[in-house]
Write a structure and sequence with these properties.
Layout (H helix, E strand, L loop, with lengths): L4 H24 L7 H9 L13 H8 L24 E6 L2 H6 L8 E5 L6
Antiparallel strand pairs: 1-2
């Protein structure tokens, strides 16, 4: 999909306005942590947990976990949504390495690649 220059400018303006608003919102949040010892125990054991969040909790979780380090919090707010009927057509799922992307300063996220065969019989 190709975006017009106007649509790209609108998207850039929205992002430019949304980031400072989100950062300001994040500064107003207060945390009450319960059960962190379970998370810490899993991390020490080399068994990072899968975190499940529900509506209304994704933004606060992103703000809480955003300062991740290789040996520290490792929550990522990156998702891939595919239709159920495509699941049998996924050829590959790959996640970039922390060292190459975050550790090098190239990004604060790692890429997620999902290769889906949308042409039956190929």
């Amino acid at each position: 999909m190709s975006l017009t220059a106007t649509r790209r400018a609108k998207a850039a303006a929205i992002a430019a306005a949304a980031y400072p608003l989100t950062a300001a919102l994040g500064m107003t949040l207060r945390w009450r942590i319960e059960g962190a010892e379970h998370y810490d125990e899993l991390m020490r054991a080399g068994r990072p947990p899968i975190l499940a969040l529900w509506h209304g909790r994704i933004l606060p979780a992103t703000l809480y976990w955003r300062d991740r380090k290789k040996d520290g919090p490792t929550y990522h707010i990156d998702y891939v949504f595919v239709p159920t009927q495509w699941l049998g057509s996924v050829r590959e799922l790959a996640v970039g390495s922390f060292e190459e992307w975050c550790g090098s300063g190239l990004s604060d996220h790692v890429p997620i690649l999902v290769d889906v065969n949308l042409q039956p019989g190929t």
